[in-house]
Amino acid sequence: DKDGDGQITTKELGTVMRSLGQNPSESELQDMINEVDADNNGSIDFPEFLTMMARKMR
Q: DSSP assignment of the chain, as one string?
């Protein structure tokens, strides 16, 4: 959450994923966010991020 707003955007998520050696497309990043975006605001908060990461670790 680079700008400190409590939300992770596709851009911020892309930065994290690339640092982990992944190279997702913008569409894939949006799909990842949509999968756990409980309030449908187009970005994810930290609890939603943890849900997403837990699903990816399975």
A: -TTSSS-B-HHHHHHHHHHTT----HHHHHHHHHHH-TT-SSSB-HHHHHHHHHHHH-
Separation of alpha carbons 24 and 28, rounded Å: 6
User: Taking the model in full, what pTM does it have?
Assistant: 0.77
Query: What CATH code is carried by the domain that includes residue 48?
Result: 1.10.238.10
Domain containing residue 16: 10-57
> For 19-47, what is the mean pLDDT?
92
pLDDT at 15: 94
Instruction: Check if the beta carbon of residue 29 is closer than 8 Å to that of residue 10.
Output: yes
In this model, does residue 18 exceed pLDDT 90?
A: yes
